Amino acid sequence: MELSTLKAILKVWGIQIPKLNAENGIDERIKVQKLMYLLQGRQKSLRYLYNIYIRGPYSPSLSQDYYDLASRLSEITAGSLPEDTRVNLETVKRDADEFSKMLDSVDDVASLELLATTLFFGKHYSTESKIVEAVQSIKPKFSREQVQAALNFLVQNDYSENYGS
Questions:
Q1: N or C terminus of the chain: which is more exposed, having fewer CB within 10 Å?
Q2: Nearest to residue 5, comparing CAs of 110, 89, 99, 94?
Q3: pLDDT per position as a tens digit, 16-57
Q4: Sorting pLDDT into bands at 50, 70 and 90, what band is 165?
């Protein structure tokens, strides 16, 4: 992805780009990883490859891009975004905020981790029970009810078209 496009995306989401390079910026980096994964679930033109990692879906190439952006921030101008991309960005952020409020016992970063991980396994398993089981097997800190809530939320908000058949 062009760094100017990434800068524009992060600006819409209110991500503090200098924090991405900071030692204490782990939460910002996790937010970017999970929000971008959710965005990619809605917008197929994004081409980051993800694998499952400790905190959910992780893209090494996205990580490299935001480190590059943070280190070259002053020389990169935010690009313009097509209207459909802007709409998807706003939808993903609104969905993430809404889900976080539903799980009031879980912080924002953890709720993003749960949503993105559930979506990841939804792409690999075809039944709800297998998705819930897979998420719980690597994320035991989330209750079965929380995982089911994430799955229901993704289905209700049109992320389910990405699920396996």
A1: C
A2: 89
A3: 888 888 787 888 899 899 989 988 887 767 789 999 998 999
A4: very low
82 Ramachandran zone, left/alpha/beta (phi>0; psi -120 to 50): beta
Rounded CA-CA distance 95/40 in Å is 14
Instruction: Tell me if 79 sits within 8 A of 73, measured CB to CB.
Output: no
Helix, strand or coil, per DSSP, at residue 113:
helix
86 touches 8 (CB < 8 A): no
Close Cβ partners of 25 (under 8 Å, ≥ 6 residues apart): 19
| Distance between CA atoms of residues 20 and 55, nearest Å | 16
